[in-house]
């Protein structure tokens, strides 16, 4: 087993999730920016901007096409994984 250190958030983490295949890792933090990483090497796949508060939780659809996030700004957002919209 190899250890990979992923650095990219400016504030403490609040949630981590793998997709069903285990190839993507999703992270949420108090820095308002949910992020997705390649699990095998720790490279950033994408960042989702639009929340105005800490992002507390996230989950990914079974087919890894959509991401849902919930935030302290009292919103939940449904994101298209590839486009970020």
From TrEMBL:
In the record for this protein, the WD repeats are positioned at 6-47, 48-85
**Gene Ontology molecular functions:** translation initiation factor activity
Keywords associated with the record: Initiation factor, Protein biosynthesis, Repeat, WD repeat
Q: Does the keyword Protein biosynthesis apply?
A: yes
PROSITE patterns registered for this protein in UniProt: WD_REPEATS_1, WD_REPEATS_2, WD_REPEATS_REGION
- Xref: Pfam families: WD40
Which InterPro entries does this one have? Answer: WD40/YVTN_repeat-like_dom_sf (IPR015943), WD40_repeat_CS (IPR019775), WD40_repeat_dom_sf (IPR036322), WD40_rpt (IPR001680)
Domain of life of the source: Eukaryota
Question: Has keyword Protein biosynthesis?
Answer: yes
> Which family does the record claim for this protein?
Belongs to the WD repeat STRAP family.
Q: Which PANTHER family does the record match to this protein?
A: EUKARYOTIC TRANSLATION INITIATION FACTOR 3 SUBUNIT I
UniProt-recorded name of the protein:
Serine-threonine kinase receptor-associated protein
- Source taxonomy: Eukaryota, Viridiplantae, Streptophyta, Embryophyta, Tracheophyta
């Amino acid at each position: 087993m190899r250890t990979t250190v992923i650095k990219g958030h400016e504030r403490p983490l609040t949630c981590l999730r793998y997709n069903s295949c285990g190839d993507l890792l999703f992270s949420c933090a108090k820095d308002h920016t949910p992020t997705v990483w390649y699990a095998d090497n720790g490279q950033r796949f994408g960042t989702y901007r639009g929340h105005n508060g800490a992002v507390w939780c996230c989950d990914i659809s079974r087919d890894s096409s959509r991401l849902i996030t919930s935030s302290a700004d009292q919103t939940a957002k449904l994101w298209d994984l590839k486009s970020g919209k």
